[in-house]
Amino acid sequence: MADHTVDVLIAGQGAAGYTAGLYAARYGLATVICGDTFGGETATGGDIQNYPGWPSIDGFDLMLKFREQVSAYDVPLLDADLADIERASDCFISTLADGTTVQSAAVILAIGRERRRLGLANEAAWVGRGVSYCTTCDAPLYRGKSVAVVGGGDSAVEGALLAAQHADEVRLIYRGSEFVRPAAVLLERLGAEPRVEVLLNTEVVELVGEESGLRAIRVSGADGDQRVIDIDGLFVEIGADPRTAIAETLGVELNPATREVHVDRMMRTDVEGIFAAGDLTDGSGPLKQTVTAAAQGAVAALSAYQYVSEEGRRCAQHERGFALAPAPR
Fold first, then answer.
1. Is 47 among the catalytic positions?
2. What is the dotted CATH code of the domain comprising 117-236?
């Protein structure tokens, strides 16, 4: 017997997960949210200036507001990741990393992506203090400054072009000898952009800074020679991998091109009762933003409500009265 029985389990404590929880609760569904990482990508994004209604707000503070709002509806927050899931008759039995089991009629996967990192000292500590994994989000913060973009794919080239609209100096750093993945039109635009200096056969080997954050990078060329480049910001655009292990366990269809969970316009997967939202999915194409994740979470909650309520699917008399997790500090 499961520890808890609810209408919908939402996996992920980011923008998509919290919004799905808010809408599910307002639809009257017994809901629980799980996940051991507060706030997802947004919480570590530093100053956010493109979320409607907030001209400028720290990503962590924005996610606190999301969490406080969903908590006001008495939605339980279980601070453990979804570790395993299996179908049991008309329901799903989910096992969390701490051993807790939850039975639910529907599941919304909102577990996002794992950003690829350079693996350098202070990289994680300086996120939001000079290091960013989202040029689209943070490039406007570096108006009139000097930045570098690392990567050799479409996202890196697009990031360098976007950064050039704001920063005075942009260096695009790629360890390869030539670009082979970006679209030809992007490379043409790159060649015509005077504010972008391309450094091929070059690798970032050290982040240089102090307690307040990044102030320079040390790079190494193909010949092994190293030099330090003063910069105000570093955008790491070497890709991100959607967290699809749980979805694959259930046999959920993935987008063959992007390896993201494939959803329709209502955030339904091809497995009945399983919905997905946010950066895990192909629902908003390449635009992975807090606002799109939140929007997908709302749509997924509506679909879960229709699935559970309108079609009369209930695992059992659901339980209420969970203890809410304390707000993160």
1. no
2. 3.50.50.60
